[in-house]
Amino acid sequence: MNSSMHEFKIISKHRMYDQYLVKLRACIQLLDETMLWGTGEAEQNSIGGIVHHIMVHVRRNAVKLMDPTITYKQGMEDSFKPSVQNKEQLMEEVEDAFSSFCAALDNTGDINMYDVYHVVEHTAYHLGQIIDRVQRLAGHRFQFVQTGLNEKALHAIVQQSMPNPQD
User: Fold this and answer.
1) How far apart are CA 107 and CA 127, in angstroms?
2) Who's near 83: CB < 8 A, 6+ residues apart?
3) CA-based, 20 to 30 A from 140: which of 86, 111, 112, 128?
4) Integer Cα distance of 109 and 131 in angstroms
5) Cα(89)–Cα(81) distance, rounded to whole angstroms?
6) How far apart are CA 23 and CA 25, in angstroms?
7) How many Å apart are CA 91 and CA 88, to the nearest integer?
8) Is 132 exposed, middle or buried (0-12, 13-18, 19+ CB in 10 A)?
């Protein structure tokens, strides 16, 4: 594997785990069960449903990274209805899915960069929805960039994770 692909995998892993998962945790911690599972007049899916959708997508792609021959017969359109109705249980499943995805990135050689990029981008899209709703519902403004969840911090984490070329 070339060094650019290796760096891409490291960036993807840390973006998912050290940024997106941290933001997701912060959002969910602010919500009570009613806010997590409720839907507003303009929303079809609850925040918990969107979190579940992210988790299913990340988990499926972790499995696909480990076995690229896997094909799924059904899409993700119906994965907004979680099987759990408990905030703590949902977060355990999310943590497990993100950990599995990162482990899959660590334990695979060549990857389909487009598939990994899609997972990162898909997660970012839905995370943005969640952050927006949580800020509105909880009356709280996250200051993620100002508190260290930014590209500069990500770059530092990635650089620490990169092998030293002199080794």
Assistant:
1) 26
2) 52
3) 86
4) 34
5) 14
6) 5
7) 5
8) exposed
Residue owning tokens 């918990």: 48
Return the C-alpha torsion angle 22, 26, 32, 34, nearest 10: -70
Q: What is the pTM of this model?
A: 0.90
Compute φ and ψ for 88, nearest 5 degrees. -65, -40
Total residues found in the chain within this entry: 167
Three-state DSSP class for residue 69: coil
> Can you tell me the distance from the alpha carbon of 159 to that of 104, in angstroms, rounded to the nearest whole number?
20
Digit-by-digit pLDDT tens for the chain (167 residues) are 688 888 999 999 999 999 999 999 999 999 999 999 988 777 788 999 999 999 999 999 999 999 988 888 776 666 667 666 689 999 999 999 999 999 999 999 889 899 999 999 999 999 999 999 999 999 999 999 998 888 999 999 999 988 776 65
Note the helical H segments in the chain. Answer: 3-14, 21-30, 33-37, 47-66, 87-106, 113-138, 151-161
